[in-house]
């Protein structure tokens, strides 16, 4: 990707009529481009793992923009970043908006950054127009939302809301075998104080998040913005099949204890199971490790992660139990051992009816037909929603593609989403 390609592509076809009431599409495009330069991959994607130097560099860049916008900037013990604008009334609560800046390996440039930059653009617009909200407004950047480094995500928002089990967290290791305490120490954090991120009295009035839709509904409806009706809760189930490694040529088929044979049958059984439980349930095996991983060696161990989601907790829990039962059945059939544990689990979050009504009004005020979309993906709003009221907007995402360099949200759609968010906030 050439130096200015992202910026040029965003600005190509941008309707300057959306530059109104202090909102600047050019500024949004420039900031998305500048952020995309951090952790740029050879494929033109983004590589900013949680608690990496790249994520830290991205946070520093956003902090500089926050300060330029007049915000009071602070960090907590989990590395979450907050930029606060004082409201007109005596502060008693804060309305928070933002997202994350970390990415999956070789991910896109819109998942997370759109939410952070859109939330900051609200401040820029208010500064330009002289508008002062009654409430304090805080732009937030949560740490390690994706969870790609430790296979356990939403870390910053979980820490802020007191949902991190530090005994489990300390035991996590990344793909290089580096333990969580050592990793965060490299970016100036400490496992001894990490959980203290929950001790700050945030007194959050509401958390609002803009995010690209990781689906195709808005494209199908030909709409730039959608209202999230609820957020599915993910459960990450770690499953390990253990057998006996051996020579591929000298070990008879009848004498083998092959964990990959069991794991293969298990993975093949997953796609049919969600539909037997719920029409909105999904389950995915996206990570699998075979050891010793030799072409002429019967594996000794196979580890995999099953990502299980539904917008109803009771259905998701039923599906999880069925998946565990299937793993045990197949392990017995193939004469191997199986162990499993939940790396993390978050209950689904519905968006209140009165909040959705206000979002409908804001969308309609911008001349956009309002539609509601359930979110199958987990977001920081999912974690925050278990403690504070939440609202969420989706931005149209080309072909529904996410977590790859091909991920794309058009600037016209992003800026229209910013106007919807601005209208919604100004009526709070």
From TrEMBL:
Gene3D superfamilies: 3.30.70.360, Zn peptidases (3.40.630.10)
Necessary cofactors: Mn(2+)
Domain called Peptidase M20 dimerisation: residue spans: 233-334
Keywords recorded for this protein, A-Z: Hydrolase, Manganese, Metal-binding
Organism domain of life: Bacteria
Record InterPro entries: Amidase_Cbmase (IPR010158), Bact_exopeptidase_dim_dom (IPR036264), Peptidase_M20 (IPR002933), Peptidase_M20_dimer (IPR011650)
Manganese is among the record's keywords: yes
Entry keyword Nucleus: no
Family: Belongs to the peptidase M20 family.
NCBIfam families in alphabetical order: hydantase, PRK09290.1-5
Assembly mode: Homodimer.
Name under which the protein is recorded: Allantoate amidohydrolase
